[in-house]
Amino acid sequence: xxxxxxxxxxxxxxxxxxxxxxxxxxxxxxxxxxxxxxxxxxxxxxxxxxxxxxxxxxxxxxxxxxxxxxxxxxxxxxxxxxxxxxxxxxxxxxxxxxxxxxxxxxxxxxxxxxxxxxxxxxxxxxxxxxxxxxxxxxxxxxxxxxxxxxxxxxxxxxxxxxxxxxxxxxxxxxxxxxxxxxxxxxxxxxxxxxxxxxxxxxxxxxxxxxxxxxxxxxxxxxxxxxxxxxxxxxxxxxxxxxxxxxxxxxxxxxxxxxxxxxxxxxxxxxxxxxxxxxxxxxxxxxxxxxxxxxxxxxxxxxxxxxxxxxxxxxxxxxxxxxxxxxxxxxxxxxxxxxxxxxxxxxxxxxxxxxxxxxxxxxxxxxxxxxxxxxxxxxxxxxxxxxxxxxxxxxxxxxxxxxxxxxxxxxxxxxxxxxxxxxxxxxxxxxxxxxxxxxxxxxxxxxxxxxxxxxxxxxxxxxxxxxxxxxxxxxxxxxxxxxxxxxxxxxxxxxxxxxxxxxxxxxxxxxxxxxxxxxxxxxxxxxxxxxxxxxxxxxxxxxxxxxxxxxxxxxxxxxxxxxxxxxxxxxxxxxxxxxxxxxxxxxxxxxxxxxxxxxxxxxxxxxxxxxxxxxxxxxxxxxxxxxxxxxxxxxxxxxxxxxxxxxxxxxxxxxxxxxxxxxxxxxxxxxxxxxxxxxxxxxxxxxxxxxxxxxxxxxxxxxxxxxxxxxxxxxxxxxxxxxxxxxxxxxxxxxxxxxxxxxxxxxxxxxxxxxxxxxxxxxxxxxxxxxxxxxxxxxxxxxxxxxxxxxxxxxxxxxxxxxxxxxxxxxxxxxxxxxxxxxxxxxxxxxxxxxxxxxxxxxxxxxxxxxxxxxxxxxxxxxxxxxxxxxxxxxxxxxxxxxxxxxxxxxxxxxx
Length: 895
Known about the structure:
- By secondary structure, the protein is mainly beta.
- The protein is built from 10 helices and 52 strands.
- Strands 41, 42, 43, 44, 45, 46 and 47 form a 7-stranded mixed sheet that branches. Strands 2-8-7-4-5 form a 5-stranded mixed sheet. A 4-stranded antiparallel sheet has the order 12-11-14-15, with no helix packed on it.
- A hairpin with a 3-residue loop joins strand 23 and strand 24.
- It starts with a helix and ends with a strand.
């Protein structure tokens, strides 16, 4: 079947070559369209779109590790590093879409680099690393940087857990979770708490159960929970055992969907046309399929089979008025019928092929129809490459590949009314023009704790020295398995950052320039859309109005309202950081009361006290602060790898465990089952009549003001300027004959131990609160008034949040992270070499700012670890001054 498919593709390519054999020069572009086309590209350039790529030191990590990264922020067109933004945001997001770690990084003299310290108690699992700038939030978040990473935990070996699922056809579906010890012995008679959640994190059910003699608990699942992708959270907290893990349900029956995409977008009658297809499973992974295409009468017109990662193509000659249906069989067992797009009698289809020297195109149309005036526009990343009018007598054209930058070439066919009639994207590769690398070590082999010197040389394709801004990582091959087909800076900036959807093994398409690789890369282009620079908006002349500022520096923006509820023009605003020294700023509001305090410079989370006076020095009614860059919604781009693919991670964790770790220079031994819990000294002492609300209980109310939240406390009502609670055992409070004071008792409030009023709470939000304690010391049980009710609500704010008066606004915002430096031991004395502390480093060298000078040379030095028969992998990524990507990966160790 596959050989038949390749034959059809070969026939099609030969037909295309014949069509392009006679090509005449096209006439000049129509004068009427040229201003609109030029205006589109000018508007695109003024948007200053940005791209981000993060080079990591390793592909996976363990709890207690550091994730070292270098961020390459470039403009989306030329890939130069002279972008407008001076800050980036980096998040680590769990499988539920919750951000668990985040940092803001400021550009320094060399660029952007930092790390994440993974806590030793960090839950093992799959996470997503996401990065963006504030300016990028003005555009489609699908083009943010995303990369899935796996984090293990070598200290969780005390308890192992595995899950299996029963067949839902045999009754109520169940998840069977089995708990075992380090030697695979079961944990019987252990209390396990579990909760079942749907894919959106909504709790469905929960219970507690003791494990069986085989260490298992049985969790009942709703009939559709597995298919919809929920998860079960399990926890053990009994004596010496403490364990927590979440299991995400695989899909009960993986469904397959197939999309058929004719070249150019439409099926046009009477001409040979390539139809590409892409098959994907419902879990976003690729699917292998085969099938036939038939007419509505059942006549077979084509046979097909996927060739690479669920993609393939076939040749068809559409007929007017005919409908085509594909019968598809997938390896998953699915059989489906998919209708191909309708034949468009008035349609156009751009067909294109690439030779080593040229990109050639032809516009296909029903032979019985005349061509309308058409223009073909070509661009790469929003930069216009050429504009050609279409000759109706010979609707073909060409561009020399040496005039096209490396990357995705977008061909667009537009008519005289600026409508897009057909599109085609191709990847133009310049392997002959890529850089050349040399990396040589100073010795053929190394002993443990011996100095390693590697000399690096970088040249252009013509052997002239080449300078570049690079980052380099050297890892221990015995414990870190590199992914040669994974995404790197070249695959990302040149390809995946400009197309939508998941691309499996993007590094494969840059591995070589064999005919198979080029063909598969073209299949990828045929089955993906281009949307970063949407040419369909060519007729939209509206000015680009960003919602977010470009973050050159740090600032506070907002609005001042006067005492009469109107704007406060020319109000003077002052912002002072309460937890930072010498961080303050002032500004004068404009005529509408809007203000901007810029020129601020602060690290980490900072609390500002913002005050304002009118231009006459009078009090104002309110100061509102705009959230500078609210965290954008998280949209997962790539699926996670199956749970079974963890062999490399297990080997890595075995190396990092070794019975002891080194934390801040102290040896820390793993004590099986030992759990240390600290008590917060600020935690209120709730008695038997009280209720304590902590940050977990308050989490779902975070967007709410503390003033409004008081109404959610059980039994509390707000009347006038105070809070009251209904006395127990009393008649209907709606009875007008009953005195209010005998029905309700007043509530007293304190903020960080100081009495306050309900109006004082309007200056805070729930996210400012650490604890709320609602305590009733005595209850009046009758109307007689015997015994006074003392109902008190104690509020404890988080560290750094201060109590303020009504005329002051508190504003907490994230500052940039402190710079960090990679530590590598130096064994330059006999005493250091003899140190008994084991050296089990997996990343032996990391330098985010490797500068290769104009002479094209650089040198790195580090010391080997304790492993014998040293084996290392070196990975270098970078950008040249003119925006070309550089990458180098190789085994540098000698055996």
